[in-house]
């Protein structure tokens, strides 16, 4: 049981002194000290108060060594993805960490995509991927970078490196936003999505290139979902017709302003 060490860990994580935590729980400081050194087990009412304060289930407080979790795992637990609350709805992700126990960003090249389709849950395969860090991304979230191919997502060029944020709960997928999806039969796809999980138990997959028809991806074929964050490319994309129209409208507005000033 990890209750005593977890109370100490969570208190320090919230930057609270023993006195500060005691005041929030409306108990004596000596009580906190006894709980943290394991000489006394908190009564049920205190366990409930600790659970409410830290947004963590009592089961997790008792059974999981929170100090061993990565920051991204703690973020998920504290924001509603506690395994003892969600049960089998919690999706487990195989990942790697650096020497400071921070999540790496693994790099999945075009050559590695075929292996990733079957090895995404294999710790050995994931550990063999190149890794890097991007200091401007949140340490509380999990990211992975995939190299995309084809022209279905123009103006993002072929062979661009697309970084995504891991989506723990598929219900969080938002309409008309870009996602990288690992599928059972198609491998890795990069599409704009319409979330129809509640209505049809599927995602509507839409290419930004109108030459490609939208299609439905059944829930049973979804293995991982990553929300688009940014991309890196050695190419500069050509202006689209939409960009050209935007510049034309801007020019017309500028001409109208000049006319107004003359009148």
Number of helices: 11
Oligomer type: single chain
Radius of gyration: 24 Å
Q: In total, how many beta strands? A: 9
| CATH architecture tag of the largest domain | Ribbon
Specify the CATH class of the largest domain: Mainly Beta
Briefly note the structural class of the backbone: alpha+beta
Order of helices and strands: HHHHHHHEHHEEEEEHEEEH
**Widest sheet, order of strands:** 2-1-3-4-9-5-6-7-8
- Quick one: biggest sheet? 9 strands, mixed
Number of domains: 2
Helix proportion: 25-40%
Q: Could you say which overall geometry the principal axes of the C-alpha atoms support?
A: extended
Poorly predicted regions are none
As for the CATH topology of the largest domain, it is: Umud Fragment, subunit A
Portion in strands = 15-25%
Query: How far apart, in Å, are the first and last alpha carbons?
Result: 81 Å
Report what the structure shows.
With 263 residues, the protein is α+β, with helices and mostly antiparallel strands. It folds into two domains: 3-68, 434 Repressor (Amino-terminal Domain) (Orthogonal Bundle), CATH 1.10.260.40; 105-232, Umud Fragment, subunit A, CATH 2.10.109.10. Helix content is 37%, strand content 21%. The chain is built from eleven helices and nine strands. The protein has helices at residues 3-13, 18-25, 29-37, 44-54, 58-63, 71-78, 83-86, 110-119, 123-127, 197-200, 241-262; strands spanning 105-108, 131-132, 143-147, 161-166, 177-183, 187-196, 202-206, 215-218, 222-232. Strands 2-1-3-4-9-5-6-7-8 form a nine-stranded mixed β-sheet. Strand 5 (177-183) and strand 6 form a beta hairpin. Helix 2 packs across helix 3. The longest helix is centred in the last third of the chain and has 22 residues, at 241-262. The chain is extended and about 75 Å long. 19% of the residues are buried.
């Amino acid at each position: 049981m990890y209750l005593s060490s977890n109370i100490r860990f969570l208190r320090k994580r919230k930057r609270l002194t023993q006195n500060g935590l005691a005041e929030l729980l409306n108990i004596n400081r000596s009580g906190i000290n006894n709980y943290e050194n394991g000489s006394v087990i908190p009564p049920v009412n205190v366990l409930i108060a600790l659970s409410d304060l830290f947004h963590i289930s009592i089961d997790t407080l008792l059974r999981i060594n929170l100090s061993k979790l990565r920051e991204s795992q703690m973020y998920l637990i504290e924001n509603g993805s506690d395994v003892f609350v969600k049960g089998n709805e919690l999706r487990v992700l195989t990942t790697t960490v650096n020497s400071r126990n921070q999540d790496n960003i693994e790099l999945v090249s075009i050559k590695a995509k075929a292996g990733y389709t079957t090895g995404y849950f294999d710790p050995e395969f994931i550990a063999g991927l190149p890794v890097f860090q991007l200091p401007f991304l949140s340490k509380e979230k999990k990211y992975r970078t995939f190299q995309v191919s084809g022209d279905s997502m123009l103006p993002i060029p072929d062979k661009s490196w697309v970084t995504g944020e891991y989506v723990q709960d598929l219900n969080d997928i938002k309409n008309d936003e870009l996602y990288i999806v690992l599928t059972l039969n198609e491998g890795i796809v990069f599409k704009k999505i319409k979330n129809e999980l509640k209505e049809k138990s599927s995602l509507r997959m839409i290419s930004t290139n109108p030459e490609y028809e939208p299609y439905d991806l059944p829930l049973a074929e979804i293995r991982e979902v990553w929300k688009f964050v940014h991309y890196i490319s050695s190419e500069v994309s050509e202006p689209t017709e939409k960009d050209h129209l935007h510049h034309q409208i801007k020019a017309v507005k500028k001409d109208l302003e000049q006319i107004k000033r003359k009148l």
